[in-house]
Amino acid sequence: MDDSSIVELYLCRNEDAVRQSAEKYGSRLRKLSYGIVCDHATVEECENDTYLQAWNAIPPHEPKTYLYAFLARITRHLSLNACRSRGRLKRSAFLCELSDELEACIAAPDDAACRMTDEDLRDILNAFLSSLPEKSGMYFCAGTGFLIPSRTSPSTLDCQKAA
Question: What pLDDT does 61 receive?
Answer without folding.
Answer: 86
